[in-house]
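[Automated response] Your request has been received and processed.

Submitted sequence:
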Amino acid sequence: GLKYAGFDILSLANNHILNYGQKSLDYTQKLLQKNNILYSPLPSSNQNNVTIQQFNNVVFGFLSFDIVTYPRISLISPISLISPTVDILIVSLHWGNEYQKEPTETQRKLAHKIIDAGAKIIIGHHPHVTQPTETYKNGLIFYSLGNFVFDQPWSEETKKGNIAKII
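Generated structure:
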């Protein structure tokens, strides 16, 4: 379904990716590779989690972080190192408080630091509801796009989501 919907790249950084263990994560990665869908791997001590792809002479970098599960993970250092090597750096962040319609002040400050470090776009997810979008300097911050596909029928707000089309 993801292939036919036109997805080129995905973030695997979220608090549910290991619900069924490492074997299922490995299966997910192999299935994405088989269908020519790139993914930003989970950060680890022995692996850089950037995916780089060139489209129409523009080099994109894609980094993913789950700071819900790993709140102490270093973000700014890898962003600062990678941003000079790409034209546009997109950072996918699994962050924020579930069901809250506004980001926290801590999120806003971190988002600004990420843009200051060289990211151009931040795509946030985890709250299950949509949150505001902000333009900061030369960057674009989507604090939460809400749910894309998720089975939470008990709430109208969790049935809604945004799709970002950035040109």
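Summary generated for your ticket: DSSP finds four helices and eight strands in the chain. Helices lie at 2-5, 21-34, 76-82, 105-116.
If you did not submit this request, please reply to this message.
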